[in-house]
Write a structure and sequence with these properties.
The chain is an alpha/beta fold. It folds into four domains: 169 residues, P-loop containing nucleotide triphosphate hydrolases (Rossmann fold); 63 residues, Helicase, Ruva Protein, domain 3, CATH 1.10.8; 157 residues, Up-down Bundle (Zinc Finger, Delta Prime, domain 3); 105 residues, DnaA, N-terminal domain (GMP Synthetase, Chain A, domain 3, 2-Layer Sandwich), CATH 3.30.300. The chain is 52% helix and 8% strand. It contains 26 helices and eight strands. The strands form two sheets. It has a five-stranded parallel β-sheet, with helices on one face. The protein has a three-stranded mixed β-sheet with strand order 6-7-8. The structure holds zinc ion (ZN).
Length: 536
Amino acid sequence: MSYTALYRKFRPDHFEDVKGQEHIVTTLRNQIKAERVGHAYLFCGTRGTGKTTIAKILAKAVNCEHPVEGSPCGECRSCKAIAAGASMNVIEIDAASNNGVDNVREIIDEVAYSPAEGKYKVYIIDEVHMLSPGAFNALLKTLEEPPSYVIFILATTEVHKIPITILSRCQRYDFKRITIDTIASRLQELMEVEQIQVEEKALRYIAKAADGSMRDALSLLDQCIAFHYGQELTYDKVLDVLGAVDMEVFGRLLRHVLKQDVSGCIGLLEEIVMQGRELSQFVADFTWYLRNLLLLKASDDIEDVIDVSSENLVRLREEAEMIEADTIVRYIRIFSELSNQIRYVSQKRILIEIALIKLCRPEMESDLGSVAERVRVMEDKLENGIVPSGMAGTGGILNTGLNVNGSSGLETGSPGTGAADRPALPKAIPDDVREAVEKWPIIVGRASMPMKQYIKNAGLSLGGDNKLLVVVQDGLASDYFAEQEGHRELLMQMVSQAVGKDIEVTVRSVPDKDTFVRDYVDLNQMIHMDIEIEDE
Ligand SMILES: [Zn+2]
């Protein structure tokens, strides 16, 4: 038996079935009832929020022979022809692939002829921001004085790219992201029609993952159903198909972090990796989990915006009790930096390990928030009468608690662990340089061409004066950073901005990568090596 994708099967035919855009639907129905339909509409909003769906219903409604309360009847000849895609009165154009002046001219030529039957010719131009400037100009003339029987519906996800001249001639409707509740209840409805057994929790997870897009929600649900066709769709199965991690895991992770148990954290991450979970999703979900904890701390009456089942809520409340709001804020900061970085790298796991270690070891960071947390950790320990003999490798309370001036657990990598052929290894990397190296992917991401290209391929090392040394290739890159060009200063500014304090940057060049590997200490590699040391 063949399976029709839910998105196709349940595309709404009537205004009543459109969920989450009531403000728009009501206005349009009123216009139709009053026979005061406009001639140019602009529908803007993120993907999957119903723009083309509503455009099609509107096209049907204006041509319907017996509209019901402003909605198309679905029974008359016109409604049926449009539904079957056989009507000459509804013309859909994808501007992404028809963006030239000629494409628009074709439309304009056609506009001159009134419809053979029915009342209106409706032109739906999707992704209209893709039109070329010339095409916009050509369209503008028609929008200025459209024939009475023509309606233009322009749809776009990027309204800022639409020329103001066009904007000023359209009725603009902003489509909202659809709420998790609305999406979940729509999915529930469809599952009842399809007679598919499904756990409510499972649907809520899909609704949350869809991030405001009904279309994405339906296609995620499709994937899950296809994977477990003919069986009840449970929460666990959904997590499995989408590569996500159960909430309960985050609670376990939090407990390890609060105990500053690095090996517990790394072990748990190992488990997650072994289960084949999607690591970017893990980072996003854990950040969301922390956000929920923070909201719970911030207010008692917040359960509506926290999207968890009642059993999870009990657990979440318990976990929120275990942690201070300041600490959560610091965790969220580290994890949102991580989710920015993680897009650029193939070694996602290593970056997550670094972040987890940062959570466990506030002494690795030097901002005020982490200093405050170091004090908290110390107080906790003193309160419990513990004078710790050391947490996994660092040297006791004096090191972990009071070592405010910088050298952290990570920097005291014991000699001889894999670095035997590198006698010149520095004992410690200054904190600001380390941070610059960790943030390098972000700095590269923010740079524009051609600098982006050069610094992406650059090696990072430590200069004789403990300054950050950026090593580029001879040729185009070294010319670019030549002293009189001022590009080194620009890079310095960007690095300083990313790290949040002034950082001196020296640029040097080498003939090839091998020379760099042979003659320089590779900071990127060192930092990763530290992690391996920490891991043991
Ligand atoms: Zn009809």
